[in-house]
Amino acid sequence: MTDFPADFRGALLRPGDGDRYDAARALYQGRAADEGPALIAQCADEDDVATVLRHACAHGIPVAVRGGGHGSDGYAMPGGALVVDLSPMKAVTVDPETRVVRAQPGVLLGELDAAAQEHGLAVPAGTVSSTGVAGLTLGGGIGHLMRRYGATVDSLLAGEMVTVDGRKVRADEAENPELFWALRGGGGNFGVVTAFEYRAHPVGPDVVAGQLIFPFDQAADILGKLPAHMATAPRELGLLAVLAPAPALPMLPPEAHGKPVLVLVPVYTGDLATADEVIEPLTALGRPVADLVARVPWLQANSMLDAVAPYGKRMNLRGGYLPALSADAIEVLLHHAATAPSNPGAATSFNMWCMGGAISEDVAEDATVFSREGAAWLWEAVSMWDAPEHDAQYEQWATTVGEAMRPHSLTSGYTNLTDDLGEPWRSGVHGSEAKYRRLRAVKAAWDPDNVLRFNKNIAPATAG
Ligand SMILES: Cc1cc2nc3c(=O)[nH]c(=O)nc-3n(C[C@H](O)[C@H](O)[C@H](O)COP(=O)(O)OP(=O)(O)OC[C@H]3O[C@@H](n4cnc5c(N)ncnc54)[C@H](O)[C@@H]3O)c2cc1C
């Protein structure tokens, strides 16, 4: 790759460039650091993106794309690859009149949130500040606001994209509508998105949010009561239930530290005067050992999970949709939470996201690629560890969890909150067969040679 085009204006980093190369290739997924890409092209703007893609296309070089660097598969920095690194492209603007937010693909969720909150607004997105808007949006985007305002893709108005042969196109409801459909859940399969336009919504500035920590022996009972409870809860209540090792909090006895507990994470963005009516019945589902729910700024609520998301650990992720949080599914979750591997510096947690409300009821299944039909809850199992010699143990464990949860899960799912499970999972994860056929046709129209193949890949439809 020595003949790289001279008109590229950003930084080019190769193995041998020392700390700058190592800093550029660091991802949330620590295992990605085991191998390094051949060339990282840090793009200053969309012209740079077009330059790299034209060069790659002309030489038949497959391209990886780095947005915020949180993809659990580590596809953003594959060994030996050419990487379009979008992290320098960080502009974000908010029009308070139209509530249109425009973000470049290097913007992180914390930055998006901070810019929108200056005007009392938020784009519904994810829950950890260092996650990138780009990969999150292209996969779907779920978080504390999804029951009130839907998935991130439901608030996406347009994307600007550089095609693999270097053309700049726009995709929205009127222009390239089929591409616009595919960008709302089909991942980084079609081109490199250089700007996202969203509709933001009023949120905060204060909300009521935090954590309710319950002993593990209450978990089965509380999880069992949650579905009926949430069926009548307002859309303004977001709820995440977590089974995870207890933090070393002073209100927990020392012998409980590190042992699994149930944590309910409510985030209520409705009228603050009604918050007690919404939160107190949730607290009363059990006898919490710690009640850390309080009135806080939205920015604090939407970054409280940063503390449990350390950068650079080795990790894996399995997840899926539950049509119901049934007693059988709960039993499987509790059994695996109680028997997860335990190693120094490692942690395993199960997250159960309550869906319903806007994300489930306001958008038709085929309106976006991001699938949600029939999904009442989303489960994910996250393991993080340090030692490479534990890789096999955690992979085996994740496989066991995935198999145990399969009978309780839909075949569709959320691509961003699980590792790539290959075929046939990929062809079913977006929903119906017809949807996947449609996606393959869009892939064939925009990236027929599969230049963008370091992703949860959609095989281009073949002619005939
Ligand atoms: C700690 C943590 C917390 C998370 N929390 C949430 C959450 O609350 N809600 C949620 O919905 N998801 C969440 N996720 C999942 C997250 O949405 C995905 O990991 C997503 O892929 C991250 O995007 P990124 O840009 O940071 O990652 P990257 O690794 O940079 O990108 C992931 C992939 O997206 C593609 N891509 C990225 N940018 C572009 C672009 N501009 N054009 C074309 N393709 C592109 C590439 O194929 C790339 O490999 C979380 C992940 C982690 C690790």
Automatic annotation (TrEMBL):
GO molecular function, a single term: oxidoreductase activity
SUPFAM superfamilies assigned to the protein according to its UniProt record, in alphabetical order: FAD-binding/transporter-associated domain-like, FAD-linked oxidases, C-terminal domain
Keywords: FAD, Flavoprotein, Oxidoreductase
A UniProt-annotated Pfam family: FAD_binding_4
Membrane-traversing stretches: none
Required cofactor(s): FAD
Taxonomy, superkingdom: Bacteria
Ranges in a coiled coil: none
FAD-binding PCMH-type domain sequence ranges: 33-203
PANTHER family cross-referenced by the UniProt entry: BINDING OXIDOREDUCTASE, PUTATIVE (AFU_ORTHOLOGUE AFUA_1G17690)-RELATED, FAD-BINDING PCMH-TYPE DOMAIN-CONTAINING PROTEIN
Family, as annotated: Belongs to the oxygen-dependent FAD-linked oxidoreductase family.
Name of the molecule in the record: FAD-binding oxidoreductase
